[in-house]
Prior knowledge:
The protein is of the alpha+beta class. It has helices spanning 22-27, 45-60, 102-113; strands at residues 3-5, 29-31, 64-67, 77-80, 85-93, 120-127, 130-137, 140-143.
Amino acid sequence: MGSCSWIVTLFPADGSPGPVSTLLQWALYISHSDQGVVTMAGTSLTARTILFDAAAELDKNGYVFIRVAGSSRLFDLVAWNKEKTLFIAVRRTCSGGISRFARDVSLLASLVKERTLPGIVQIWVFASKEWQRYQILPGGALLIRGGFL
């Protein structure tokens, strides 16, 4: 069984060491089995551009976020505001939409079913020059319509 862990220390604006919330510590320690997780390659210009665009959407909607790095990551972004925490997998495709990522959806749905993460799990698919955002539920993915969730 493989695992990934990150240790992050947050500092307030005055530069003094500040406490790291339990929620953030949870968010940054994510274990998963070696099941050949499909992740977005973060090295190509297009992949980075899509991640920057997703980060800009989060910022515009009042979220603080971190980008998760590493080849075995499940999520590309972890975002939070006063009300909620989002674990976001970012994907891109020229055709096929969410159906191209059935394996990812299945793996993420199993995490939701097991209540492994203290927040909302989403997969954002950039297809046909627009975002399609899905909330991951225990049984699969549900398209988010209307406002930002």
